[in-house]
Amino acid sequence: MRKWGKWVAEIREPNKRSRIWLGSYTTPIAAARAYDTAVFYLRGPSARLNFPDLVLQEDDLRDISAASIRKKATEVGAKVDALETSLHHASASSSESSNPCRVFRKPDLNKYPESSDED
Fold it and tell me: Where is the region Disordered (predicted)?
């Protein structure tokens, strides 16, 4: 995670010092899925993946150049990022609509708790 809040993904090319930039995402799952896609196409089915059940092997990626791997990984990452972001916003809005009066404030830990008159 970068200090400005984005999650990034990149991978080293085999037997090279160069890296393939896979993108910057708002969710860690999207970055991990982009990485999984790239490592799968670089190392094959024996690659160690974050989400092994979610990688789909497609026959249309015969060119395993850095550019084609980057393109495929960023497509997957962008789709997952959009889905995760929309799910997060949907759950946040549904929780707000179910109880709109519920507001939590962080307590000031430097103060003693106030006693209530109900005691």
Answer: 87-119
| Residue that is written with structure tokens 């709109």 in the block | 100
Domain ranges of the chain: 7-91
**Which residues lie across from 12 on neighbouring strands?**
19
Whether this prediction's pTM lies above 0.70 is answered by no
Find, among 13, 77, 71, 69, the residue nearest to 51 by Cα.
77
Residue 2 tokens, joined: 């970068």
Three-state DSSP class for 8? strand
Three-state secondary structure call for residue 21: strand
